[in-house]
Amino acid sequence: EGNYLDQIAELKRRELDKFGNLAMFFHEMGNTLANKKSHLDRGAERLFSAGAGKGKGRIYNGFRWVERQTRRNLIAYNVSAALSNTEALAACFSDVSISDFNKAAFDMAKSLLSRDGFSDSSAFLQARENVENLRRTVPEKIGDAGFVLANLTDSFVSEWVTRAYYRKGLRKGMSAENAMQFADLKAAKCIGDRSKGMTPLIFKSKHPAALLLTTFQLEVSNRFQFIGDAVKEKTAEGGLNLLFFLLKYMLGTYLFDDL
After folding, report:
1. Structure pTM?
2. DSSP alpha helix (H) spans, the chain
3. Average pLDDT, the chain
């Protein structure tokens, strides 16, 4: 009996250890949702603002301004950066049937002539819509013009991918509502969801040291996770499905890179 009690106590300890940082995670997530700084950022702000007197916070805010402007300058008016959004189509192509992929493109073309309300029904697509400030200065408007192509390609790819997964859900026998929820979830995993509360907390940090590791890396991290999850799913379905997925993914990425 004593041996069993020891085993139960050990199992309980192991399970509790898994949730050792749960309270801190909820606290940090609450800060993120409330637009508050994380503990990491507050520490950096105190470090760079020490002894600043009346200028407290200006050094840290200066770092943030340089970081924002650097990222904007690397992306704005950059055709290559805008076209890189289409890489998600290669990943989607490998995870859905060719029929679903093509029908999604056809549905998009039809929606240009007559809106079908698809994007209004998708929580994922609605979350990706740009939210503009009511008051924009002239320099800000000029800077925003540099992101027109990037926003267009992102909108185009996001809707195509979501529609493809919606088609896949319907083909599996789901209702329209469940298929839309399925499409939102799969599209977020395929493309990467930057809406509030959906990105890993480290990617929301503005700490200079963290930015060295996380800048422009969300999509890269998301792609590795997408491939890993897809391999597990296809392996469970059978070896041929896994092989077909890998072949389609390699073909899609080759066409994306070379064409």
Report:
1. 0.75
2. 2-18, 22-33, 39-49, 58-75, 79-83, 87-95, 98-113, 118-121, 123-128, 138-145, 148-171, 176-191, 208-214, 218-237, 239-258
3. 79
